[in-house]
């Protein structure tokens, strides 16, 4: 029972951190002047942490609650749709790539693919709503911003995973081959 409560508190803490990070990220001017609308994706840092410290079921909860709470606090139905598509594409590809194991892919690689897939998910929804696939011409530019932001989020996630001792409590959730270094 105590372990279950600790895990619930950890999940809640991760969701709260992701929501706060996403909220404050809205006030940061985008460094991607070549890609209007692109964000840094700093909230994805929490997704990376949850992927490597929690079972898939609990990691999914973190991602879902982050999306719901962030949208509820400052979004609209259309931002929810874009966020849902980006989040689903991103999370699913990160899970798939992570399953390849640490000998084939790094935390940074997982983060980069998550950034790219988030953009693809949002563009697909935009294309469906706008009934035009021409918006996909924007994909190379958004992919570049996804690579850059995913790279830096991956570096930060890798650093946090190696430095934060409290995360080691959840190390049992990691698949074979993955481990948090002390």
From TrEMBL:
Keyword Methyltransferase annotated: no
Domain of life, per lineage: Bacteria
Keywords of the record: Membrane, Transmembrane, Transmembrane helix
InterPro entries with a match to the protein in the record: Hpre_diP_synt_I, Hpre_diP_synth_I
Parts of the chain that traverse the membrane: 6-24, 36-56, 76-96, 108-129, 141-161
Protein name as annotated: Heptaprenyl diphosphate synthase
Organism: Streptococcus pluranimalium
